[in-house]
Design brief:
Layout lengths: L1 H11 L5 H15 L5 H40 L1
Length: 78
């Protein structure tokens, strides 16, 4: 008897569209987000730009070194 009542209650509940439920959950989660301040965003952006520049210089230097070594090796073999 209890199962029949539970089933009837479930049937009475309006079925929520999956898209609407998704947007409600997204809005709920977005309210929990702690956004960085403007100063923190600028500081972290500068850090990313500086590190990207340093890494690109290191990779360029390694590439140039290996290209030079390969050229010397090829000229020594011929």
């Amino acid at each position: 008897m209890l199962m029949a009542v539970a089933k009837m209650d479930k049937e009475k509940e309006p079925r929520e569209n999956g898209i609407i439920r998704t947007f409600r959950e997204v809005r709920s989660e977005m309210k929990k987000v702690v956004w960085p301040s403007r100063e923190e965003t600028i500081r972290l952006t500068v850090v990313v730009i500086v590190l990207s520049t340093v890494i690109s210089v290191v990779l360029f230097s390694a590439d140039a070194l290996f290209a030079t070594l390969l050229g010397l090796l090829q000229s020594a073999v011929q």
